[in-house]
């Protein structure tokens, strides 16, 4: 009679730990609006589906407790590495939203963000919700799930990635977050800057003009107008860049 714990339970748990760690940190899945129980059910179900495909590559239950703990720790680290850059890159929308809010006069108008669980500006909240929908509409979650499946070809169960290149990719992602955030908010920033320049010229030409009372409705109108007509392009650019930062590793994800 086969040892169920050695050949079935422990290998399944290794897959579950890698998949669960990925889902608990991946954008879309890790939003605070999705409760932990739902995420665990999703991770358990997908792990059960992948188990027949990966069972032959899974190691049996080791005899030493320390080795078993190492396997579990390695799988959790691998799952986090598979999605941490995508999670960090979502911050580009926060940077872009804050810049849009600042140039449009919405920096003082904050709303509760159910995704991040904190108060944020209205443009940031709108962009984060739109990006969450785009994440699933564009099947980006399939990229991450297939990435977990393909990762076992490069990183078998129990293996850890090299520390230096992994940290370098994460640092580069943080740098790209601010760069892409500024690029995305570029149309609104340029329009707002030109609006302030024109208002400054009017203030010099017509000193009697109450620029403060004129500037607020003008900047809000211009900001909302540019935000509305460029939102599709903003999210499109963000989607392309997000796929480039799908994972720490250069894992080729293809459909068979």
Fraction in beta strands:
under 5%
- From the helix content, strand content and strand pairing, which structural class follows? mainly alpha
Q: What's the Cα radius of gyration? A: 23 Å
Mean pLDDT across the residues is 80
- What's the total count of β strands? 2
Oligomer: single chain
Taking the alpha carbons of the first and last residues, their distance comes to 35 Å
Largest sheet: 2 strands, antiparallel
**Spatial order of strands in the largest sheet:** 1-2
Residues in helices, as a percent range: over 70%
Number of domains: 1
List the uncertain runs.
251-256
Helix and strand pattern: HHHHEEHHHHH
Principal-axis shape: elongated
List the total number of helices. 9
Can you give a write-up of this model?
By secondary structure, the protein is mainly alpha-helical. It has one domain (4-244). It contains 9 helices and 2 strands. Strand 1 (110-113) and strand 2 (118-121) form a beta hairpin. Residues 251-256 have low confidence and may be disordered.
Sequence-ordered SSE layout with sheet pairings:
Layout (H helix, E strand, L loop, with lengths): L3 H22 L10 H19 L10 H25 L1 H14 L5 E4 L4 E4 H16 L2 H15 L8 H22 L1 H20 L5 H34 L12
Helix pairs in contact: 1-2, 1-3, 3-7, 4-5, 4-7, 4-8, 4-9, 5-9, 8-9
Supply database-style keywords.
256 residues, mainly alpha, two-stranded antiparallel sheet, 2 strands, elongated
């Amino acid at each position: 009679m086969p040892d169920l714990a050695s050949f079935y339970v422990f290998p399944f748990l290794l897959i579950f730990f890698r998949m669960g760690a990925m889902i608990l940190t991946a954008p879309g899945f890790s939003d605070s609006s999705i409760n932990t129980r739902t995420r665990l059910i999703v991770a358990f179900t997908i792990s059960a589906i992948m188990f027949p495909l990966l069972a032959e590559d899974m190691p049996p239950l080791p005899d030493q407790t320390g080795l078993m703990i190492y396997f579990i720790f390695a799988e959790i680290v691998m799952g986090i590495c598979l999605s941490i850059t995508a999670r960090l890159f979502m911050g580009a929308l926060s940077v872009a939203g804050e810049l849009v809010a600042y140039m449009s006069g919405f920096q003082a108008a904050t709303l509760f963000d159910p995704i991040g669980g904190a108060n944020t500006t209205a443009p940031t909240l709108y962009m984060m919700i739109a990006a969450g929908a785009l994440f699933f509409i564009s099947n980006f979650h399939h990229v991450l799930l297939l990435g977990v499946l393909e990762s076992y070809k490069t990183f078998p169960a129990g293996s850890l990635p090299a520390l230096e290149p992994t940290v370098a990719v994460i640092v580069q992602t943080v740098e790209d977050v601010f760069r892409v955030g500024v690029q995305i908010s570029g149309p609104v920033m340029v329009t707002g800057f030109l609006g302030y320049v024109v208002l400054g010229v009017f203030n010099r030409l017509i000193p009697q003009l109450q620029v403060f009372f004129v500037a607020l409705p003008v900047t809000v109108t211009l900001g909302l107008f540019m935000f509305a007509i460029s939102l599709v392009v903003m999210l499109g650019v963000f989607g392309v860049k997000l796929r480039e930062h799908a994972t720490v590793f250069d894992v080729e994800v293809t459909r068979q």
